[in-house]
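Dear colleagues,

I hope this message finds you well. In preparation for our joint manuscript, I am sending the Down syndrome cell adhesion molecule-like protein Dscam2 (Dissostichus eleginoides) sequence together with its predicted structure, so that both groups work from identical material. I would be grateful if you could confirm receipt.
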Amino acid sequence: MQAVIGLLVMMPGASYGLETYCDGRQDGAQCFGPLGGTVVLQLMDKALQTERYKFDGKFRVNNLSRNDSAEYKFEISDGINIKEKRALRLTIQAPVSSVRLASECLSQGEKRVSCSSGGGDSPQYSWTLDGHSLTDTELLSVNTETNSITLRQHVSGAVACSVENNVSQVSHKEEVSNCGFIFINCSSNGTQISQWVFAANNTLCIEPTTPPTISTVDHSLLVCAVRAALVVFALIGIAVYFAWKNKNCKKAEGSAYRPEREHQDESVVMVEM
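The corresponding structure tokens are as follows:
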């Protein structure tokens, strides 16, 4: 274990930054440590402790630097006989420090979302929408060179980009809305139209469902005017009817009175005779 012990002697002190763990109990183990941080190497089981070496089988290597990336060989013995020979490779990586998102609308209403990270060796990018992996109905394309994705026209929600390597993982989430496009599927002048168009400038297949506001106002005024005219005509008709009825009643009273007087005159003449 001389190589590992020598490494510990060269880098004593407190732990800085991130900390990773590596199981080095198997020969040829691949271990990763964060630059400026700590790696915990599990080299032995507790059951292998002897009276001479009392420890939990773990070694902590602090304040890691680039120069610590190497292959380390060590031996495990009981102080007299060598029990096992082993090797492990330790790779030091700079951790990811930050993640940023940027989005833009494309000409057909798709939305491109780009992800960039600060620092980090060999970063790997992954994406989610509202907490779930993107599906083919939501995702149009992925560009691994620019670390960007292109979302379909109808997609909106919380888009998260996660950046990770073997020693760190950082993610960032932003709300993304669609670009204001709608899908048109109709027939105009015998031509079938099926495409995405910007809703604010759309002039295709527009069928007004309600008349303009001014027409609605005019129609309401016309209805009110007609109703008012009907009421006026009804009142005039009622007045004419009662006037005609009153006149007929007076005529009827006059006709009934005059014959009585003639009869009375004739009676008087008859008496004189």
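For the figure legend, we might mention the following. Confidence is low (pLDDT under 50) at residues 1-16, 260-273. The domain at 96-182 is CATH 2.60.40.10 (Immunoglobulin-like).

With kind regards,
E.M.
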